[in-house]
Amino acid sequence: MLDPLQQSAVAGAALAITVFWGTSFTLMLMGTYEPAATKLSAQAQHLIKQEQQKGTVQDQQAWLKEHDLSITLGEQLP
């Protein structure tokens, strides 16, 4: 068994390692997916503007959802 000082040191080291890797992987995922999501969102907005000019779209959000182009965090999570 470790004494309380050693337990505290191990817990601090484990926390530091966990925070470092958690932050690193989160930033890596954001750096990978954010540019693609931004581009796809811009393309969807461009497409919906074209459809609105034709007069075929009344509700933007409903149209995006109907065509599986709606990107909300709630819909992305399992």
What keywords describe this structure?
mainly alpha, 78 residues
Characterization of this structure:
This protein is mostly helical. The chain contains 3 helices and no strands. It has one domain.
The span between the termini is 41 Å
Reading the helices and strands in chain order gives HHH
User: How many distinct domains?
Assistant: 1
What is the overall pLDDT average?
85
Task: Report strand %.
Answer: under 5%
Main beta-sheet strand count, sense and barrel state:
none
Briefly say what this structure is:
With 78 residues, the protein is mostly helical. It is built from 3 helices and no strands. It has one domain (4-76).
Which secondary structure elements does this structure contain, and how are they paired or packed?
Layout: H1 4-54, H2 60-66, H3 73-76
